[in-house]
Amino acid sequence: MSIKPIPLFPEQPVDPESILGALECSVIVVRGDGMISFVNDSAQRFFAASASQLCGHPVDAVLPRDSTILALIRQAQERMIGVSEYGLILDTMRTRSQLVNVQISPINDHPGTVAVAIFERNIADKIDRQLSHRNSARSVGAMAAMLAHEVKNPLSGIRGAAQLLEGSVEPDDRNLTRLICEETDRICALVDRMDVFSDQRPLERGSVNIHIVMERVKQLAQNGFGKHVNIIENYDPSLPPVDGNRDLLVQIFLNLIKNAAEAVPVKGGEIVLATSYQHGVRFALPGSTAVKQLPLVVTIQDNGPGIPESLHSSLFDAFVTTKAKGSGLGLALVAKMVDDHGGIIEFDSQPGKTVFRVMLPMARGE
Ligand SMILES: Nc1ncnc2c1ncn2[C@@H]1O[C@H](COP(=O)(O)OP(=O)(O)O)[C@@H](O)[C@H]1O
Ligand SMILES: [Mg+2]
Fold first, then answer.
1. Closest to 194 in 3D by CA, of 327, 300, 298
2. Which end of the chain, N or C, is surrounded by fewer C-beta atoms within 10 Å?
3. Contact assessment for residue 86 and residue 127, using Cβ atoms and an 8 Å cutoff
4. Range list of β-strands (E), the chain
5. Which residue has the higher pLDDT, 257 or 108?
6. Is residue 120 pLDDT above 90, yes or no?
7. What are phi and psi of 56, to 5 degrees?
8. In this structure, is the dihedral angle defined by the CA atoms of residues 337, 278, 238 and 221, taken in order, positive or negative?
9. Is the CB of 321 under 6 A from ligand 1?
10. How high does pLDDT run on average in the chain?
11. Among 300, 315, 298, 299, residue whose Cα is nearest residue 270
12. Taking phi first (over 0 means left), then psi (-120 to 50 degrees means alpha), and beta for anything else, what does residue 104 get?
């Protein structure tokens, strides 16, 4: 039997316009004079207008004159640099307002001309999740404060009483009083773990080298829960320091790596730790005019089976777990600690590849 070779390049090259047409994000090209010179199929759907209605018309006839995206386009044109912004509310003239992520890239051989890519929903969903788990951390916080009062006080009474009894019961029954003590201790420890959710004090923060944090976390993992895992490091050594709290950063990444180590297969388990700097990405949170820059990115990737789809929308909520002995507090705590840093956490997961991405602010004065 002969095997037919597969040509390295197809005989008929695919023209760039069909490629752009196949993309799910909307792409528009804006010239230096503000005229639209190209729109792909998605952009026509997005703006509810045909190519002929859009091309050759000024971009500010399509977008409201005061929209942030116009200001970003101008910025990219003047300085010929790429800019992106997450969580922007985009009002087009014809369609309802939408939450989008925008990326604007200068086209090098054409001074003043930029390509604008608009991503819908996906990113917006992630930000939605971010906002909703912030709320869930808050409700856990209120519950933790209540538990501390209503549960811990009576528990210490029960424990004290059991200890007193221990002296007067038959030796055979002592294991029962001991059981009471051990179980009350376990409940107290659980309440203590939840107590951090109600901690409202502002973070004590300073300039932290994230690579020292990662080194510590890696050591802890390799000497304990992550013995069986191959940990690969892929760091950007020139990364500036984080504005953060070292101990909390250790906790954040320890929790994420622990989950990754618990997810990977016993044989061939692999975790990739990476750091990078993302240029020009600004976050505008829905419902606020404040914009923040989170240029430092730490990712934790594992080759486990992925996060079940049914968990995606509630992953950062407390008590969400699929593990027999899991508490479901790990990610809720991570989300709270990232939020306390003013950072953002998001994830992408499919079988064989789960990535958690934490975006953090740079230390002041950097
Ligand atoms: N890297 C990962 N791969 C697959 N599933 C994960 C991963 N990280 C978290 N999960 C899922 O999210 C759930 C919640 O995690 P977490 O809040 O840390 O609680 P716990 O680890 O106690 O279960 C886990 O039970 C697991 O189902
Ligand atoms: Mg966990």
1. 327
2. N
3. yes
4. 26-30, 36-39, 83-90, 98-106, 114-120, 206-208, 230-234, 242-244, 270-277, 281-284, 291-293, 296-302, 344-350, 353-360
5. 257
6. no
7. 85, 0
8. positive
9. yes
10. 85
11. 300
12. beta
Residue linked to tokens 């179980």: 183
Nearest Cα neighbor of 198 from 327, 342, 340, 343 is 340
User: Which amino acid would we find at residue 105?
Assistant: S
The residue with tokens 């407390």 is 318
Separation of CA 171 and ligand 2 centre (Å):
39
Do residues 227 and 264 lie in contact, with contact meaning Cβ atoms separated by under 8 Å? Answer: no
- This prediction has a pTM of 0.64
CA 74 vs CA 30, 110, 178, 269, 342: distances in Å = 10, 15, 72, 47, 28
pLDDT tens per residue, range 260-277: 999 999 999 999 999 999
* Ligand number, closest to the Cα atom of 316: 1
Cβ of 257 less than 6 Å from ligand 1: no
Per-residue confidence at 197, pLDDT binned at 50, 70, 90? confident
The Cα 36–Cα 175 span in angstroms is 80
**Does the beta carbon of 323 sit less than 6 angstroms from any atom of ligand 1?**
yes
